[in-house]
Amino acid sequence: MQGKSELQHEKSWERTKNLVGDKVNSHKYSQIHLIIMEIVEEKYFVSLGMRERGGSFVKAIGEALLHADMTNVQKLKETWPEYWMVYLKWGQKIDKQK
Questions:
Q1: Count of the separate structural domains present in the chain
Q2: CB atoms within 10 A of CB 36
Q3: What is the pLDDT of residue 5?
Q4: I need a surface site. Which of 15, 43, 54, 76 has the fewest CB within 10 A?
Q5: What Rg value do the Cα atoms of the chain yield, rounded?
């Protein structure tokens, strides 16, 4: 049985393949996709940790993170790097418990 992250990874992979098609070679595409998936997974964990463990302000950031595009994810990460690391760890712990 696959975990949540693995299923999300597979679905995202399929959507990305459909969008890109044969325009790039498989190896390069695989590398790009893995980087994107790492960012998406980290975003999920940080958001989860913030929404589950943060105070009202941090919970609001976690909710905004759910809706953020890659540019805004990076802005949030750069603005609050301490929060990012703390809630990344919390999110990973919470996800393992589910």
A1: 1
A2: 14
A3: 57
A4: 15
A5: 15
Residue 59 has pLDDT above 90, yes or no: yes
- d(C-alpha 69, C-alpha 65), whole Å: 8
The residue segments making up the domain with residue 39 are 4-97
pLDDT at 8 over 90: no
Q: Is the dihedral of CA 35, 41, 46, 50 positive or negative?
A: positive
Considering only CA atoms, which of 59, 41, 39 is closest in space to residue 95?
41
Distance, C-alpha 8 to centroid of its chain: 10
For the cut 80, the answer to whether the pLDDT of residue 25 exceeds it is no
Q: How far is CA 47 from CA 6, 22, 28, 68, in A?
A: 18, 33, 29, 10
The percentage of the chain sitting over the pLDDT mark of 90, rounded to a whole number, equals 56
